[in-house]
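Lab channel / #folding
Pinned by the channel admin:
"Please post every new chain as: sequence first, then the structure tokens as a reply. Keep commentary short and put observations after the output so the thread stays searchable."

First post following the new format, from NK:
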Amino acid sequence: MSATAMPASPRLATWFHVHLVSDSTGETLNTLLKATAARFETAKPLEHVASLVRSHVQLDKVLARIEQAPGLVMYTIVDAGMRRRLEVKCAELQVPAISVLDPLLNAFADYLGLEQTMRAGGQYELDEDYFRRIAAIDYTLAHDDGQMTWDLESAEVVLVGVSRTSKTPTCMYLANRGIKAANVPLVPTSDPPPELPGLRKPLVVGLTASPDRLSSIRASRMTNLAATQDVESYTEQSAVRAEVQKAKRYFASNQWPVIDVTRRSVEETAAKILTLLSARRGGAE
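Reply from TO:
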């Protein structure tokens, strides 16, 4: 037998059915499924989504699908009778039925000493929070990519960075959380907007990334756009490296916090910004 180590054989994916049953939009279930499945490298869920399930007729169809393709069931159902039917059917089929919010709801109820509001989709009511999110989205769209820099003082967060540092998607994520976010690109051929250093109300955050990573992303973008002009200055590694270093010096001169997005998802970057914003507001209080 050869002493040479044999290459490890690739692990086969484990496919499984998972039913997401909700009397609301199902976004909570979808998020929790993705977060949980990510912990199991070879697990590949086959999703069956049933949202806005609010009648027994709708539930009948869901139960039929679960019977046809048995698998793990994750649910958020408020109605006690419908919950009971779902749980009984899952017990008959010997598949897990998980009410994903129950542990949190019970903990809140015990801690607060309050009754739960038994209302499906309560988080999507047209209340003050909803209209704040809509206003934040409108603001962010109007202040994207360096637009309306004269109005940046009204922002809650301003992101500054060179091209392709995820400024726009991060701003949109924050806007969906009700945060008025603007972003300003740093362009090598132009000076930064003069309004930036004087901002006092917004949290200004510099976004940076590895020059190698930026160069690769930019080159891919140019290929997709079939661009032919100024490609070298936009994608060449030495030029990108100089651009990134210049941006870092600018951030430091203004004493702004800096986030390296090279290995961060948009969600992780936004979470860091929300932490900085919370700390800033706490210090102001």
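NK: The first helix runs from residue 27 to 37.
TO: also worth noting, The two ends are 71 Å apart (CA to CA).
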